[in-house]
Amino acid sequence: MKNKLWGGRFSKKTNPLVEEFTKSIQFDKKLAEYDCIGSIAHISILKKAGLLTSKEYSKLNKGLNDILGSIKGSSFKVDESLEDIHSYIQDLLEKKVGKIALKLHTCRSRNDQVVFDTKLYCLENITIISVLIKDLNLKWVDLISKNINTYIPGYTHLQHAMPIGLVSYFNAYASMLHRDYKRLENIFNSTNLSMGSGALAGTSISMHKYNVAVKLLSLGAKKIEPSSNSLDTVSDRDFVIEILSSLAITGMHLSRLAEDLILWSTKEFDFIDIDESFCTGSSLMPQKKNPDVLELIRGNTGKLYGNLMSVLVMMKGLPLAYNRDMQLDKEPLFSSFEIAQKELKILTELLPKIKFKKENIAKQLEDECLYATDMADYLVQNKVAFKDAHTIIGKLISYKLKSKKNIKDMTDDELKKFHPLLNHKMVKKIIDPETSVRSKKSVKRK
Fold first, then answer.
1. Separation CA 193–CA 221 (nearest Å)
2. Is 230 assigned a catalytic role?
């Protein structure tokens, strides 16, 4: 492995097995852009500290900006024979500007550099995820506006419970996504960028010279501050764990949505039709239209949970300060961001193409058991104790199921056997999805 950022103390070559085992460039190459941005900020600090002349600064700044430009274009290729992306950027810079590039690492440690680059990556990707969540929530708003007066059976224990408005269902997931957005917003606001921690104990540059700013296209200017505690800065991965936790929760919400849609698309439910462009077929059964996209969203939740657990377990026994174990936070972090972004994008396209089979849903709403609580509430409003009302309507439902008679078709005499207040006109009015939904006044209707 050539051009290491370390090695002067060593007289032997690194064993090739060790080089292959310890290198991280194959995945930390995703940090190339952020490493350049951090290095541009670092040389401005070195200039302020008198450790670079104006001429040296200009040469380094131009070289780093040239590399940054190539990363954002299509010409950037990574040589994976080097140890990590930080070594590679240094190597590229030296080829561009000569030996002056050797001053880039002045008062700097990869311990501090890695966490800075990772935080920049996280801040930008939190911004991307937040925009995607907003886009998906806009689809809920569209679906709500198109289904104001649509009702569906509500379920508990996956059994018919009470009628609900389809709007309430949509709003439930919109509320989950809003919480996901707020969690990420809180992480974004609490993630501080700092430089000057060195390997663990700080550097010889005065603290006030570290007050600079970096620019990212999606973030605008972001202020860098001196580290409040250098030991904590280089060894902290709380921000990674918080992000992985937040993305795991988002994945869980999307998985629950996917499960609902999978169930609703089955012949047994037959509530919705998922557009063919988001389904796949069977290699054996010609009739099949499978909701594979939704199944993979459901399945990916296991990866998101695993990514969180892998970093929690990796961090649990580490002494202060930096340890090489912490290199293993990158792949789970990158993986979770990529999974969440892909899932949010595909659901944003899939949801508007779902067709609700309102005739099939209406047939399910004919189940009179859905209105048992409404009938009990009617008795309660007429001075019957709820426990008694619960028992009365329970016996009525039992009679309905055994006799295979619809409650709506029962005579007044039959109904009054259960309670004098029960009558044909009353039950016919109550057994109606719109009446049932509108009778619930304890929640806001959007």
1. 12
2. no
306-365: pLDDT as tens digits: 999 999 999 999 999 999 999 999 999 999 999 999 999 999 999 999 999 999 999 999
pTM confidence score: 0.92
Tell me which residue range forms the domain holding 86.
16-106
Determine, yes or no, domain membership for 446: no
Q: Are residues 138 and 188 in the same domain?
A: yes
From 175, 282, 398, 403, active-site residue:
282
Each residue's pLDDT tens digit, 14-38: 788 888 888 888 888 999 999 999 9
Last residue in a domain, options 83, 106, 129: 106
- For the question of residue 398 being annotated catalytic, the response is no
Query: Which of 72, 106, 140 lies at the terminal end of a domain, its last residue?
Result: 106
User: Could you please report the per-residue DSSP string of 314-359?
Assistant: HHTTPPSS--GGGGGGHHHHHHHHHHHHHHHHHHHHHGGG-EE-HH
> Is residue 342 in a domain?
yes
Is 444 part of any domain?
no
CB atoms within 10 A of CB 406: 12
Catalytic annotation, pick one of 11, 157, 208, 442: 157
Task: Give me the number of domains the chain comprises.
Answer: 3
